[in-house]
Amino acid sequence: MSHATLSPKRSSLRGATLPKWFAWAVAAGSLVLGYGISAAAGLHSDIQWALIAAILFVVGSYAVSAKVEGARQAKDRTATSLVWVAFILAVIPLASLIWETVKRGVKVLDGYFLTHSMGVVADSEPGGGIYHAILGTLEQVGLATLISVPIGVLTAIYLVEYGRGKLAKAVTFFVDVMTGIPSIVAGLFILSLWVLILKMGPSGFAGSMALSILMIPVVVRSTEEMLKLVPNELREASLALGVPKWRTILKVVLPTSLGGITTGVMLAIARITGETAPVLLLVWVTNFINTNPFQDPQASLPMYIYLQYANSGGSGAAYDRAWAAALTLIAFIMILNLVARGIARWKAPKTGR
Amino acid sequence: MAKRIDVSGLNAYYGSFLAIEDISMTVEPRSVTAFIGPSGCGKSTFLRTLNRMHEVTPGGRVDGKVMLDEENLYGPGIDPVAVRREVGMVFQRPNPFPTMSVYDNVAAGLRLNGKYKKSELDDVVEKSLRGANLWNEVKDRLNKPGSGLSGGQQQRLCIARAIAVEPNVLLMDEPCSALDPISTLAIEDLIGELKERFTIVIVTHNMQQAARVSDRTAFFNLAAVGQPGKLIELDDTERIFSNPSVQATEDYISGRFG
Ligand SMILES: Nc1ncnc2c1ncn2[C@@H]1O[C@H](COP(=O)(O)OP(=O)(O)O)[C@@H](O)[C@H]1O
Ligand SMILES: [Mg+2]
After folding, report:
1. What is the position in ligand 1's atom list of the atom closest to the CA of B226?
2. A12 assigned to some structural domain
3. Which residues of A touch B88 (CB under 8 A)?
4. A149 or A311, greater pLDDT
5. Domain check: are A265 and A153 in the same one?
6. At the N or C end, where does chain B have fewer CB atoms within 10 A?
């Protein structure tokens, strides 16, 4: 082989590269082309032309890149474009869900809506609000949190700090089983125990107990993970100072993992806030404000949304109220998530110089 | 304050594995005793039996006697938590509590053990930080996180934290192995000062360090991997490094080992 047969480009370290805007250009091109093709073929669905565009994008960037940059870079680009396509496919439903809810929800969502109950407003009439449902959901979820957090956190502490042998294995096993319990089954369990055997009536508290069954395993799992992240050296440092084990856990281990534990609890709350099945079985529903979670049916956001929608016939005042309540529920969960992140950041162990 | 340690016939196990066998030695008060020996010969294990930290490890078990002056640490009715207040420990890697400030780290031992008045705590914190030669470097940042200090400062913070509870004995497990030479020097100077007040036992891999800081040196060895570690000899540091009575010690010190 003589030098002459090697192309100058191959012999240098610098290969031919496409400019940065290349990917964007291909994306724009395939969008236009995809739209054009589907228009020409008489396809009407948005999904169809978007899929055509996605395929064009992946194939197009591979083809051009293979020609200019070589096979390795082309494969690299294909992998990158596939990741982007997957990402967009995942984000579209999420974004459209939020968009639709906001668009339909803001119509009747105002101060009046948040501070009034349905009272004597019939489903077909405009007016009314979700105050009773917000109150019910907050009380039910609050009680469930009060029950679940101590039990869950203490169980996790037992498993990580003390648990050895058979009992710990059994507890871990049951927590795993509990994680998989469908919410309707949790509801039926409390129904048989609380209503059928103990002869208690429906109440917010009955719902809270069922929600706790769903929440406890989530809290145990996330707390366990956070406690395991605390380095053993810190426990030893504290024990070596002559601090008893329980104080070490309370003053060193828990504060170090507090941010993570709080985040886990917030996410668990977010998960149970939208639960409908146990509430349907145990709390029932009412159009009036019931501030007492220990007696008589209470309203809740998931039930409110369902009933307003079911009674609306697909349009009208009840339909708008259903969407507005859904928007409130999503906003509540998002705020919880944001608060969780804030706490996690604020409480994270400080390392800054 | 400083107390004598008298160990006799001590075995330590991890589950069924015998890690160190039949160790007997005396550690003199107000002196520095260095432990040297190859990795895995049980220096850390032995050190941790001296403040009952060995049993914190799952499966950790000890038999034998460790006398702290008149009291057997493994006698019936002895509270390991109380033992650890008498026998403090500094670890290989600096491990300040990450959620606590410099001040809170030093005060941790006292605070976590009961209630103290703020003025009392202030005094103890300043005295301990001065004792650890750290006061001048941190007096303006007492409320900053302890983990924001440099490695060497963190290790001195850990020493301050350990001496704040006024122990009789201070155990140090390779306290300089994660530090740069300047910080190492600072800690070695500090050890020289602390031995006026405490009985100090230090594990080190650095022979020069053992020669520089210690009054007496103990050499540990093990026959083979999986065999228990044993104390080969304990003598004045000068003698160990010039004219040891066991051939294995001389081989190890002169680098003719293994
Ligand atoms: N947590 C543990 N569990 C089981 N074996 C251990 C544990 N820690 C140390 N060992 C074993 O005990 C022996 C002594 O270890 P160690 O005391 O750490 O030695 P050194 O500090 O002299 O390097 C080694 O064989 C080691 O494998
Ligand atoms: Mg060691």
Report:
1. 25
2. no
3. 240-241
4. A149
5. yes
6. C
CA distances from B226 to B14, B42, B79, B223 (A): 12, 11, 32, 9
Q: What is the DSSP letter of A314?
A: T
Are A78 and A161 found together in one domain?
no
Nearest-angstrom CA–CA distance, A12 and B47: 60
Is A211 a domain residue? yes
If you measure from the C-alpha of residue B229 to the centroid of ligand 1, how many angstroms do you get, rounded to a whole number? 10
Interchain CB distance below 8 Å, A244 and B108: no
For residue range A333-344, list pLDDT tens digits in order: 999 889 888 888
State whether A205 and A299 are in the same domain: yes
pLDDT digits (tens, 9 = 90+) for A309-328: 998 888 889 999 999 999 99
Same domain, A226 and A340: yes
DSSP H helical segments within A8-70, as ranges? Answer: 8-11, 22-41, 46-68
Asked if residue B112 lies in contact with residue A234, where contact means CB atoms within 8 angstroms, the answer is: no
Residue A115 lies in a domain: no
Q: How far does the centroid of ligand 2 lie from the alpha carbon of residue B12, in Å?
A: 14
Element (H, E) at A178: helix A165-179
DSSP state of A194: I
Does the interface ipTM go beyond 0.90? yes
How many other β-carbons are positioned within 10 Å of the β-carbon of residue B178?
Answer: 16
Query: Do A143 and A264 have their domain in common?
Result: yes
- Domain of residue A138, residue span: 131-346
In tens, the pLDDT along B220-236 reads: 999 888 899 999 999 99
The SS3 assignment for A11 reads helix
Query: Which residues on A lie below 8 Å from B93 (Cβ)?
Result: 233
Q: Is residue A226 part of a domain?
A: yes
User: How far is it, in rounded angstroms, from Cα A86 to Cα B43?
Assistant: 55
What whole-number distance in Å separates Cα of residue B238 and Cα of residue B141? 42
Query: Of A105, A139, A163, which one is at a domain's C-terminal end?
Result: A105
Whole-structure pTM value: 0.87
Same domain, A229 and A338: yes
Burial of residue B77 (CB within 10 Å: 0-12, 13-18, 19+) is exposed
Q: Which of A72, A73, A38, A76 is nearest to A55 (CA)?
A: A38
- Predicted local confidence at residue A12, as pLDDT: 67
- Residue positions counted in chain A: 353
Cα–Cα distance, A186 to A180 (Å, whole number): 10
